[in-house]
Task: inverse folding
């Protein structure tokens, strides 16, 4: 592990501007939701993060609840920072979030200022950092006034705990309103984090992408491989070392005959492009103008190396897009 980080780490990565901000993000980012918890093998997670950074993946995405157990993915990154990445802190964009259930009682969930600020302080402690680059509200809260939640994001930035504010899983109209409140407070919304992949098209159908472009907000698409389903790994059953095997029925229920039949056709089409299905799925997300970066998960370093090859062919002809849509038509 002596030649870390690679001196050529910036040679091949492309960086896209995040909305109308000063920040550029790599076409691929790495998320630590799965595979980096206290129950996972630390050295595997460490090697995955190092491989990512070695290839110009400068953005690492977290949330307070990532693990399991909740909080442990932040602790894992804290250890990796201390061992490997601390000297390169200024080359990294590290994000975290709060919005899902994190601790007992009325102040450990959703969108109050009380919860968001306390959660961010806990995240910073686990990460061993003075600040994160992006702090997100993780999901809309139907009961807390949007002004309070956005006010908490603004406070996180003004108090130096975060450099930028983001929102995740917000629908188009609420994103517009959140952006207006944040703009009025003087802390523009940097980025939105929606789920978007070949099988999950809502952001293009419900106007979210249009809103983000109108508002000058960047977009980091998550679950771009639908948790691994948009790869060739489930074509012949469920490998023992896969997420489906680890999660059991909640994931396996997605892998019915009809779904796998479509995945098989997508896989065949990917080969006509000289790509694996994972690579085509990533390229397909990145073809969308509103998307700044594709947020990948990975259970081992080789997956990062494989996914990076998606960047060799990001172009789709109209005909190809129609073929893909026809495969996925209900
Ligand atoms: N904001 C939100 O609400 C939200 C929700 C979910 C996720 N996220 C973010 O998005 C990130 C990614 O989510 P995700 O893990 O669901 O993403 P994903 O990229 O759809 O799935 C990742 C999984 O796909 C498999 N994989 C990855 N690269 C591969 C390759 N090249 N070839 C074959 N298989 C490959 C691995 O599965 P195996 O483990 O089976 O090897 C990996 O764990 C999270 O870490 C988190 O940061 C955000």
Result:
């Amino acid at each position: 592990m002596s030649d870390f980080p690679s001196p050529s780490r910036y040679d091949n990565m492309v960086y896209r501007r995040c909305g109308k901000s000063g920040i550029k993000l790599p076409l691929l980012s790495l998320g630590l939701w799965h595979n980096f918890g206290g129950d996972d093998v630390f050295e595997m997670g460490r090697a995955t993060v190092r491989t990512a950074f070695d290839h110009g993946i400068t953005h690492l995405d977290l949330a307070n609840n990532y693990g399991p157990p909740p909080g442990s993915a932040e602790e894992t990154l804290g250890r990796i920072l201390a061992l490997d990445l601390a000297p390169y802190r200024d080359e990294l964009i590290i994000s975290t979030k709060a919005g899902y259930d994190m601790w007992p009682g009325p102040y450990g969930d959703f969108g109050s200022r009380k919860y968001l600020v306390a959660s961010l302080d806990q995240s910073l402690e686990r990460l061993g950092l003075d600040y994160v680059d992006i702090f997100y509200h993780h999901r809309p809260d139907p009961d807390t006034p949007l002004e309070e939640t956005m006010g908490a994001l603004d406070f996180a930035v003004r108090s130096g705990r975060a450099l930028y504010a983001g929102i995740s899983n917000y629908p188009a109209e609420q994103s517009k309103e959140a952006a207006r409140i944040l703009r009025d407070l003087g802390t523009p919304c940097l980025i939105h984090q929606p789920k978007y992949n070949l099988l999950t098209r809502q952001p293009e159908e419900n106007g979210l992408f249009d809103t983000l472009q109108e508002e000058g907000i960047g977009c980091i698409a998550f679950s771009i491989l639908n948790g691994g389903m948009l790869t060739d790994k489930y074509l012949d059953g469920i490998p023992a070392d896969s997420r489906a095997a680890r999660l059991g029925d909640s994931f396996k229920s997605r892998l019915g005959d009809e779904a796998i039949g479509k995945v098989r056709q997508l896989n065949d089409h990917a080969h006509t492009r000289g790509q694996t299905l994972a690579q085509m799925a990533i390229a397909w997300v990145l073809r969308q103008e509103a998307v700044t970066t594709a947020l990948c998960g990975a259970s081992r370093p080789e997956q990062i190396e494989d996914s990076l090859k998606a960047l060799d062919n990001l172009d789709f002809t109209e005909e190809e897009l129609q073929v893909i849509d026809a495969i996925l038509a209900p």
